[in-house]
């Protein structure tokens, strides 16, 4: 953020970005580092040398222990996730469904992030904090008008339910906590490149992140999780 207005009620805050090596994760890191109110940014990714691996439950727990000494954090952003896994894109039909590929989609997009939430939520500051997780509009059941993309849609819908359920639990002790599923828009990245086709309106990662952080700044505290896009518009579950 560069407008001189703090993201939180307090004048200074610490941030933690998980998945900091990707296009959006690194853009979040850059945005926090350019914010004069952000005093520290902790970065976590499978490239950081700590052994963190979204598919390894013990590594998630170990990383949370390592990061805990640097907190508490006013905002945690989980920017992990994958559309294409092991070179295989989302399924377009029922006949394309394979159990192993479905299992991997759920691990990367729902199970791993749920374990991240479990182990990293205790690192949040006790008042006015934000836990933000990149989700996807295609994870909205009521917004699904085209079908297809079975594993990706279903794993993101499962993620959204995890966030909602966790928000209810966590807000019992931290009433000012905002748990947010974020739709970043269609962003120019390695993740989206094989699937955008002839689409010309692609967001640059820094523009998507600026929009998401502005939306978070203006987001009121509400019971349960919230599902919004990078423009701050509410998305139906």
Q: How would you explain this protein's 3D organization?
A:
By secondary structure, this protein is an alpha/beta fold. It has a six-stranded parallel sheet with strand order 2-1-3-4-5-6, sandwiched between helices. The two termini are 28 Å apart. It has one domain: Rossmann fold. The protein is built from five helices and six strands. The longest helix is centred in the middle third of the chain and has 22 residues.
Helix vs. strand class: alpha/beta
In CATH, the architecture is 3-Layer(aba) Sandwich
Q: What separation lies between the terminal Cα atoms?
A: 28 Å
- The beta-strand count equals 6
**Could you give the order of strands across the largest sheet?**
2-1-3-4-5-6
Mean pLDDT: 92
Helical stretch tally: 5
Concise synopsis of the structure shown:
This protein is α/β, with parallel strands linked by helices and 237 residues long. Helix content is 33%, strand content 14%. It has helices at 23-33, 57-68, 99-120, 150-170, 205-217, and strands at 13-18, 38-44, 75-78, 130-134, 178-183, 226-229.
Q: Can you give keywords for this protein?
A:
globular; 237 residues; 6-stranded parallel sheet; single chain; 33% helix; alpha/beta; Rossmann fold
């Amino acid at each position: 953020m560069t407008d001189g207005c703090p993201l939180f009620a307090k004048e200074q805050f610490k941030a933690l970005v998980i998945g900091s090596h990707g296009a959006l994760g690194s853009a979040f890191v850059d945005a926090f580092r350019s914010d004069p109110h952000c005093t520290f940014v902790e970065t976590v990714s499978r490239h950081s040398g700590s052994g963190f691996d979204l598919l390894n439950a013990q590594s998630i727990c170990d990383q949370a222990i390592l990061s805990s000494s640097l907190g508490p954090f006013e905002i945690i952003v989980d920017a992990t996730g994958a559309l294409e896994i092991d070179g295989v894109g989302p399924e377009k039909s029922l006949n394309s469904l394979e159990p192993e590929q479905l299992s991997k989609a759920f691990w990367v997009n729902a199970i791993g992030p749920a374990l991240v939430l479990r182990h990293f939520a205790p690192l949040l500051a006790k008042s006015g904090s934000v836990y933000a997780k990149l989700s996807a509009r295609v994870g909205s059941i009521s917004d699904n008008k085209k079908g297809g993309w079975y594993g990706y849609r279903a794993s993101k819908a499962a993620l959204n339910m995890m966030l909602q359920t966790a928000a209810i639990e966590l807000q019992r002790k931290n009433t000012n906590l905002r748990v947010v599923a974020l739709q970043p828009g269609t962003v120019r990245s390695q993740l989206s490149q094989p699937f955008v086709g002839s689409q010309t309106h692609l967001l640059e990662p820094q523009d998507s992140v600026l929009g998401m952080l502005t939306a978070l700044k203006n987001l009121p505290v509400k019971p349960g999780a919230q599902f919004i896009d990078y423009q701050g518009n509410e998305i139906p579950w």
